[in-house]
Write the structure tokens for this entry.
Amino acid sequence: VPSDAANGATDILTLKATSKGDSSKSDQATVITTAKTSAGGAGGILDQANEFADGLIGSYLESAGMKDKLGTYTPLIVLAVLVLLLLLLLIIIIAACCGGTPFRMSCEDNSHEVKRGYDTQYQITLTTKKGKKNGIPLILETKGAPEGWSAILDKAAVSPKKDEPAIVFLTVKPPAEAIEGATASISVIARMEKKKKKKRVVATTSKVVLPVSRVQITNVTNIPQEAKKGDRVLTVVEIENRDDTAATGIKCSIYVNEKAIHSEIVPMGANSKVEVKKSWVADSDENTVRVALE
């Protein structure tokens, strides 16, 4: 076939054989040759690639009835798609194993209620499956604290190691004048020291509730218990602070027949008890004593 033959050109060649002893005895054969573009051309490369693909998956395509669904080059197209999918899967696996962020950060209980003026604490755990001997150096920061709120991390940097997690505590405190129901969404961000774009974020939510007073009246005694008009009575009020912190501004008021006879500010230390005493004269044969903490 000439090197410049057009793709698809045909030629008929007849071969004739004659007996040397008897020229009347002969036979012939005819062959038809079709030229294809040489392997150096685009068409030849595609054809060869298609034949290769057909040898690999042609039987599967034929059994599935897809041999010619996409035209002459169906085997090559299907094989190319399969190879691309395999490459994409390989890239995803490599990215998951070698790329990405090589550490995790979690907070089991990331939503707290906090008393106004008090604080609450969140425990944050950082783990890794890769850290070498010195672990993975991480830088920590907080974000999102509203005005008046404080958000403090006990560590600004950690280095979790393989099978040796790092623990960090976030302390959140609302302002003393915060209204009930106010919330703060505060995030803790951990970044790699050398690759700061690789980070993890944990979000926390703190909701303000009014503190339940732990200062209580535990007992009220009137001596004597029954008094007539003109009798002198001593009222003894026992008050207890069951909180771990001191209470300030606690006012104890004593009322007789709904008339205030005494009022005073009672200093209460942490986990303490005090007595308030008041002597008064009954102005009736029937008297009702009421004590209130205000």
Notes: The two ends are 113 Å apart (CA to CA). The chain has two helices and 17 strands. The chain has a mean pLDDT of 88.
